[in-house]
Here is the input.
Amino acid sequence: MQSSELETNKIRNDFPILTRKINGKPFVYLDNASTTQKPLSVINKIVNYYSFYNSNIHRAVYDIAEEATHAYELTRQKVCKFINANSPQEIIFTRNATEAINLVSYSWGRKNIQKGDLIILSEQEHHSNIVPWQILAKEKNAKIKYLKIDKTGNLNLNELEAYLNSNNNNIKLISLCHMSNALGNIIPIDKIINMAHAYGIPVFVDGAQSVPHLTTDVNSLDCEFLAFSAHKMLGPTGVGILYGKKNILEEMDPFICGGDMIKEVHKEKTLFNDLPYKFEAGTPNIADVIGFSSALDYLNEIGMDNIRNHEIELTKYALEKMSELKQIKVYGDVNLQNRGGIISFNLGDIHPHDLATILNEDCIAIRSGHHCAQVLMEKLEVSATSRVSFYIYNTKEEINIFINALGKAIKLFQL
Amino acid sequence: MSDDIYREIILDHYRNPRNKGKIDNADVVIHDSNPLCGDQIDIYLKVVEGQIKDIKFDGKGCAISQASASMLTEMVMDKPLTTAKDISKDEVLENIGLTNLGPARIKCALLSLKVLKMGMVKYYSDKEPTTAEKMEKDSNLF
Ligand SMILES: Cc1ncc(COP(=O)(O)O)c(C=O)c1O
Here is the structure.
């Protein structure tokens, strides 16, 4: 199926929020890298759980508790399949991608990182994939090496190879975002994992932006860890996923401790539960995990390849239209194969927050700011950018509305 | 509404900020930023006999934050500290003509006032600790 065949009209009908009009204008949502909208099936799934089988999971023996446990675990199986993991035991539910990264920096990091060790990140990481490692490094007297990115936001694999080659004894982890939330660049993560594994170095993939938009196969990627958030892929907020290779997760100590993550508790000692429950202490976000299964169904129904094609098409169209405005500067790679449906830009000297305010008058939601990537902003020598990001329900008409509004801003600021 | 926000006067102060720069031997230098949008403001104060003899601001950020800082310096230049100390948020918003900003953008408009007040607290904390304490306690300030 070609991207143009993605039936956006039909898709849009499934998203109640997209029928909203504000001041008589249609709502144009272009901030999908931040969070996506939710289809009715996801909303209904949650309402249905609360209405008809609300109960705690993994504990009680009565029927509705079994129903809830079953629905919760079904989502785990679907996630397992969605990213092609070997076993649902490798799928751990957290609150979000951030918590998944923290889980690993805490449980794995505190055991495996020692004085003088090196952790490799890049200059375009989200704060979520910087701060937990910084804290770990500080605690352990380890160091962080930031891989440089060039002006288009691409990593230099030669630099990485040279660095791996000369420091391989001390490098204990590489953690990188597969797709940058600020630039949309997609890094050659498969190659990087192969390079790292040649030196026996594990790789953590921050998939917060990539998993919602690209087919993800942890089996062929062979990464040690992968983190992502349900809310960026049609799912509810409050659900994150950590994938980890089973043998590694088994070696790790728990992160948060309490009920559910134990097998036996005695006054002097506790026997931890099996995977994945060892990492899911306390009552989890049952309703939203259950709701997430409908999001996965929805994405599977459309097909990740079709989603990718649709986004390439929209990005191509938007980049063409934007390039007609001479006052605009677009960041990131120009090659559509190397970027997702995210476009970061600046319009003349209009501050992104002013631009976002002006676009808001036309009911267009875009993001402005540093996108939780201040290290990258420093590199680009800007304090902020404006950003549009697309998903399955966005259309070329919406891009036209956006481009028109840019024209208005140019007039207003007399650029 | 954006036509209302981005009126000529705002754009004028944004493009041609008044009292922008540094003061070499300032009595107080103070800095703050808005974590939401990264707007940054430094304020330099020269105080002579309880009067703001000179004020300059430096910074970067959106038109609202920068224009508002520029207008604030005009508001307090040559004024007694006791007057500047009592400037309210509403006065600043009225002065720049932005009384219907949303909660996110209001922080941009009021950043410079916040920095100015922080600067005055710093100034008083050496000279009149009780005044400084009182200012800090006044939750309405920041
Ligand atoms: C690349 C990247 N990593 C991590 C995160 C953190 O995701 P969450 O806020 O859902 O934990 C985001 C969210 O914007 C992201 O874009």
